[in-house]
Amino acid sequence: MDLEARFERTIASEQRVEPRDWMPEGYRKTLVRQIAQHAHSEIIGMQPEGNWITRAPSLRRKAILLAKVQDEAGHGLYLYAATETLGADRADLTEKLITGRQKYSSIFNYPTPSYADVGVIGWLVDGAAICNQVPLCRTSYGPYARAMIRICKEESFHQRQGYELLLTMMAGTDAQRAMVQESVDRFWWPALMMFGPPDAESTNSEQSLAWRIKRDTNDELRQKFVDMTVPQAEKLGVTLPDPELRWNAERGHHDFGQPDWDEFWQVVKGNGPAGAQRLAHRRKAHEDGEWVREAARVHSEKKRGVE
Ligand SMILES: [Fe+2]
Ligand SMILES: [Fe+2]
Questions:
Q1: How far is CA 252 from CA 205, 248, 255, 257, in A?
Q2: Rg value, the chain, Cα
Q3: Count of C-beta atoms within a 10 Å radius of residue 295
Q4: Any stretches that span the bilayer, and where are they (predicted)?
Q5: Averaged pLDDT, 243-253
Q6: Reported CATH class of domain 3-305
Q7: Residue ranges of domains in the chain
């Protein structure tokens, strides 16, 4: 009881909960689930753009894209390390990912058939990730909050490089402008889905807000993203594919339409256009890495034998 009171006091006074502290089992489980899902998203998220590394149109674009995709691998690693401070086992989490028992962000189950997708993902997908992740720098669990500070700095570079690529394409030929618009049309609604279901249907939200794991609701974050993105779209000269999108002076925010939530749930379940492909690729990469894990095991056994 005393431990629980101390935990509640830590949360209420905006202090961080650290790995050595007592915490309710539900809090620990919620964090492991959320951080693992986040880590899986970073790792799976390397695929849609990684697809373009060998075909980047210039050395400069290739260097930028390589750096971005490597950052995502780093994000995955910090986050898996954060789950380990909660007693989770990384091999077990990977197993759960590749057998479909743990999820990752629905956005990465959409294909990237055009090079403009690299720019649009940076602009919209990393942009939405920033809206989701900046509040997590103040999340109540210390190791997660600290990992997010560095991740957010890198996400901001990701967003910039995407927007800069799109500005360049929009200043190019009609065909390039059409490529950008076509990609925006495909990614706009999936980007809005990244904030999760509407608050009324979001099952985990309330407790996560009380524990200050989450700081804002899904709908608040979605609104923030739309308000931030509309002027950027105007400057870019692209049209966001939502006939209901307009400024509401009374609310001081943009009104906008709802994504197709049936599609969202289908994609979350792994039935998205590239879902099976993403998971198969991750599974193969894991199997191909077996010799590295084996070598590490043998090495550490040898070392233990010597001591
Ligand atoms: Fe990331
Ligand atoms: Fe990113």
A1: 25, 6, 10, 17
A2: 21
A3: 10
A4: none
A5: 97
A6: mainly alpha
A7: 3-305
